[in-house]
Write a structure and sequence with these properties.
Elements (H helix, E strand, L loop, with lengths): L2 H10 L10 H24 L1 H17 L5 H27 L1 H11 L1 E17 L2 E11 L8 E6 L5 E2 L14 E7 L2 E8 L5 H24 L4 H11 L6
Parallel strand pairs: 4-6
Antiparallel strand pairs: 1-2, 1-5, 2-3, 5-6
Helix pairs in contact: 2-3, 2-5, 3-4, 6-7
């Protein structure tokens, strides 16, 4: 019996560990594993050339190696299959990775607040738009720790919940909440549905657009009671000026 089980046994008085004593340890291990996967996914997106080069370096000895015994050949075949999977995953992560990166960080990352301190263009484009690099200062929940300087790029889709009406990114000086990996602060997700300055700005922007649209509809169709009722309902929301 290991030391953990012995301590559990002393606690429950039967000399045997209860299964209930171990899930916490398993959860911690699973959390760090999932966070590690998320960090690797974010790193490969922010540094695609470097991560691809690392994969190539790993694959060269694997695909040039020769095995003579049946067991060694089977193991080598398994490793090669794993490398092929990693290359495929690297490519998919570049295109669709936000579908799993964001949930992983939301589930395992640390919640805290951040502020954008600078915005600069990169050499990349996405949908004919210049990708911007936003530098931010993350304030750990433990206020005794120093703020952490990090960044994100606006082609990362790292906003949760994902907006349905287009991505609007925080501006300079704007405060917002994030989930992030302390081990690699660039692995972060911006929270868009809480009470932060950024989230309120998104809600008020959508409200202003809805009011403007309804006013145009009423101007075109003054007798439509449905448009007027909807405008009155939206106008009751006093959270936005």
């Amino acid at each position: 019996m290991n030391a953990t089980a012995q301590r559990a046994g002393r606690r429950n008085g039967y000399g045997l560990a209860s299964a209930a004593d171990f899930p916490g340890q398993h959860r911690v291990g699973s959390m760090f594993l999932l966070r590690g996967i998320a960090i690797a996914c974010f790193f490969s997106v922010l540094h695609p050339i470097l991560s691809l080069f690392a994969l190539l370096l790993l694959s060269v000895p694997v695909f040039l190696s020769r095995a003579f015994s049946p067991r060694a050949r089977a193991l080598l075949s398994l490793i090669r299959s794993g490398m092929i999977f990693l290359f495929a995953f690297w490519f998919c992560n570049l295109l669709f990775g936000h579908f799993w990166r964001n949930p992983l960080i939301i589930a395992t990352g640390k919640p805290t607040s951040a502020t954008v301190v600078s915005i600069a263009p990169t050499l990349s484009q996405h949908n004919d738009q210049v990708v911007m690099r936003e530098e931010l200062l993350i304030q750990p929940q433990d206020r005794t720790q120093k703020p952490v300087l990090s960044y994100f790029e606006t082609d990362g889709f790292n906003i949760s919940p994902a907006p349905v009406d287009g991505y609007t990114w925080p501006g300079i000086g704007q405060k917002f909440n994030v989930r992030y990996a302390p081990e690699y602060p660039a692995a972060l997700v911006i929270i868009s549905d809480d009470e932060s300055e950024y989230s309120r700005g998104l809600r008020c922007g959508r409200r202003a657009e809805a009011i403007s649209r309804l006013r145009r509809l009423i101007a075109a169709d003054p007798g439509n009671a449905q448009y007027k009722a909807e405008l009155a309902r939206i106008g009751q929301d006093k959270a936005c000026p």
